[in-house]
């Protein structure tokens, strides 16, 4: 598995994966993914070693001004046959590295019944802030709002 930038050519496949991962809710469309890329948000792709298969994707928005940035994880998705292989962890770490470069606090929402994702986020320093009732539609599933405090950039980043 290798990570690189999500490309416009990937958006249709991302939308296909969304339909598989989130069948009871409102999965993102190709247009939604393209809009995220058009807005300049940070998106990373996990690909098979040969680059032929998109295994997952993740996106992060960083907003605010220098010294007061905030980041929000917009999405993380991994194809079912590749789940449990550390791909989600690698995608999350790529997003967190991006947020850490500007010392941004990171927020996200996650389904309250998605125990593996909640454990992953908690293992990376996220804490539950509260619950958003009926956040996911049309299923009506609740979401935890979680946050991770801002982290200082890596030492070699500070020296630049």
Automatic annotation (TrEMBL):
<dbReference type="GO" id="GO:0008999">
    <property type="term" value="F:protein-N-terminal-alanine acetyltransferase activity"/>
</dbReference>
<dbReference type="Pfam" id="PF00583">
    <property type="entry name" value="Acetyltransf_1"/>
</dbReference>
<dbReference type="InterPro" id="IPR016181">
    <property type="entry name" value="Acyl_CoA_acyltransferase"/>
</dbReference>
<dbReference type="InterPro" id="IPR000182">
    <property type="entry name" value="GNAT_dom"/>
</dbReference>
<keyword id="KW-0808">Transferase</keyword>
<dbReference type="InterPro" id="IPR050276">
    <property type="entry name" value="MshD_Acetyltransferase"/>
</dbReference>
<protein>
    <submittedName>
        <fullName>Ribosomal-protein-alanine N-acetyltransferase</fullName>
        <ecNumber>2.3.1.267</ecNumber>
    </submittedName>
</protein>
<keyword id="KW-0012">Acyltransferase</keyword>
<dbReference type="InterPro" id="IPR006464">
    <property type="entry name" value="AcTrfase_RimI/Ard1"/>
</dbReference>
<feature type="domain" description="N-acetyltransferase">
    <location>
        <begin position="1"/>
        <end position="151"/>
    </location>
</feature>
């Amino acid at each position: 598995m290798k990570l690189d930038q999500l490309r416009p050519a990937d958006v249709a496949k991302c939308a296909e994966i969304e339909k598989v991962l989130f069948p009871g809710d409102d999965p993102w469309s190709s247009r939604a993914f393209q809009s995220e890329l058009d807005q300049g948000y940070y998106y990373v792709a996990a690909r098979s070693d040969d680059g032929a298969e998109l295994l997952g994707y993740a996106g992060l928005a960083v907003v605010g001004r220098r010294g007061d940035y905030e980041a929000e994880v917009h999405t993380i998705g991994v194809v079912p046959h590749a789940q449990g292989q550390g791909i989600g962890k690698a995608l999350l770490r790529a997003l967190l590295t991006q947020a850490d470069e500007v010392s941004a606090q990171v927020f996200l929402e996650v389904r309250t019944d998605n125990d593996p994702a909640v454990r992953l986020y908690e293992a990376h320093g996220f804490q539950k802030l509260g619950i958003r009732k009926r956040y996911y539609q049309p299923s009506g599933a609740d979401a935890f709002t979680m946050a991770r405090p801002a982290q200082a950039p890596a030492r070699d980043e500070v020296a630049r």
